[in-house]
Design brief:
- The protein is of the alpha+beta class.
- The protein is built from ten helices and four strands.
- 64% of the residues lie in helices and 11% in strands.
- The chain has a four-stranded antiparallel sheet.
Length: 281
């Protein structure tokens, strides 16, 4: 019980710090300079330029239906935590009294991208998400399996950045593209260091249940090796699964929700080639 409480407090602290970093990134740098670097917040910036609806309010209106559709697959604890994080980010953006820090587009792009990427990375490390394009892309993939999640994220964010060229100007769109790239790089650094993929070895008495859930929910391949516990003398299956940065926390949640006593080893993957990752050649 004490360990669970400490874990929840750590997650809460990471999420809160991450939300503040994101709010500062948007209010200090991105929103005042019309840099709409994708996501529902970017859509909020576009809508706000036409009508008097705040950026955070637009984000909430777009996210609520996604959470209603996705809550079952997210799981209660992760889903509630993510819902609160989404609401917190929207409220912080709208109501924290943070003035613009600069009107230099290059400085705003660099500092906004780095600070926003660090914030979103910390939120993910706290076992939460703020919804947005990641969740929308997952739903699109569920409805249209031919459209992969990574492709869905690229399409949605790309359309937001493209639209910003018409709503604001072409220069703002180019800076938004740079900002989106920097955000993704920094998220990777916060979550995994220089590596964007982890290989997980999972040892459990319920390996078949874990493998089925991982394949169904993450749509990642799982390989089973025959093993033997030398202390107990019992035969066991050792699972191997490789996931990207967005799926790492969800893998852990799935494993320990099925078997709290599972033994999990995480390794940083220097390079991953094959389906779902980097293609060779």
């Amino acid at each position: 019980m004490r360990e669970k409480l400490i874990t929840e407090l750590k997650n809460t602290a990471l999420i809160l710090i991450g939300l503040l970093c994101c709010a500062f990134a948007y209010n200090l740098y991105l929103i005042p300079n019309n840099i709409a670097a994708g996501g529902f917040t970017g859509i909020g910036q576009l809508v706000n330029s036409f009508c008097n609806i705040s950026v955070g309010t637009v984000s909430i209106l777009l996210n609520i239906p996604l959470f209603l559709f996705s809550m079952k697959t997210l799981g209660l604890r992760f889903g509630v935590r993510s819902l609160l994080a989404m609401l917190g980010l929207s409220l912080f953006i709208d109501y924290l009294p943070i003035p613009s820090a600069t009107n230099d587009l290059l400085l705003a792009t660099v500092f906004g991208g780095v600070l926003g990427g660090a914030g979103f990375g910390l939120i993910l490390r706290g076992s939460a998400t703020t919804g947005g394009t990641d969740m929308l892309a997952s739903l699109i993939h569920r409805w249209f399996p031919a459209v992969r999640v990574s492709v869905g994220i690229f399409l949605v964010d790309g359309l937001v950045i493209l639209a910003s060229a018409f709503v604001f100007d072409q220069q703002a769109a180019m800076y938004a593209l740079i900002c989106a790239f920097m955000m993704n790089v920094v998220v990777d650094l916060v979550l995994e260091g220089p590596n964007s993929a982890h290989s997980y070895f999972i040892i459990s008495d319920r390996s078949e249940d874990i493998a089925r859930r991982l394949m169904d929910e993450l749509e990642r391949g799982v390989t089973a090796f025959s093993g033997k516990g030398m202390y107990s003398g019992r035969d066991k299956q050792v699972l191997l699964c490789v996931v990207n940065r967005f799926e790492a926390m969800q893998l852990r949640r799935i494993v320990f929700s099925i078997d709290p006593s599972a033994f999990v080893i995480a390794n940083k993957a220097h390079e991953v080639l094959g389906e779902g990752f980097k293609e060779q050649g």
